[in-house]
Amino acid sequence: MTVFYVIFIIIAILLIIPLFISKDMNYEKSIQIKAPIQKVWESVGTLDAMDQWSPWNEKDPNMEKTFTGVDGETGAKQSWVSREKNVGEGSQTIVSVDKPNIINTKLEFIKPFKSEADAYVKLSEEGSEIKTTWGFKSQMPYPMNIMKLFMNFEANMDKDFGAGLNKLKKICESV
């Protein structure tokens, strides 16, 4: 009977603690790019352009992709299917565009796990450079939000987002 109580208490703790942990997941990373804002916009204003610096393309250059809609306009959608577990399966749809300042997209992941995120790339002029910010807002479902106590999601995201932004910078600053 004692084993039953111990298991019950552990399960109860694992269900109670997440009630006090935020489900919000917000992340963004920025880089300064020495190029005119229009040149940077050309590399972020369409799904195809974003594909040129996406870090996930390097993880699986053979992933299957399909496009629908008019790229660069609201409603355009790119879907992908990859055998690589870190790339998975999902889609990205353009939700709004404010040229040359921001493009907002909806990410829908199917594999390796179902989730959604509101993603964006923002550009702002800072002197002779363009501050380029790539980020997303999402929510972790209860009780999975307990993982926020044990995992450093920002460190995991920094590697991929940093690689993508550095590639974008190289593309935009090349002559």
Q: Quaternary status of these chains?
A: single chain
Q: How much of the polypeptide forms β-strand, as a percent range?
A: 35-45%
Number of strands: 7
Nearest-integer average pLDDT: 91
User: What is the total domain count?
Assistant: 1
Number of helices: 5
Tell me the structural class: alpha+beta
Q: Which H/E pattern describes the elements?
A: HEHHHEEEEEEH
Q: What share of the residues lie within helices?
A: 25-40%
The CATH class is identified as Alpha Beta
> So what's the overall shape?
elongated
CATH superfamily: START domain
CATH topology: Alpha-D-Glucose-1,6-Bisphosphate, Chain A, domain 4
CATH structural architecture: 2-Layer Sandwich
The CA-CA distance between the termini, in Å, is 73 Å
Uncertain stretches = none
How would a crystallographer describe the biggest sheet?
Answer: 7 strands, antiparallel
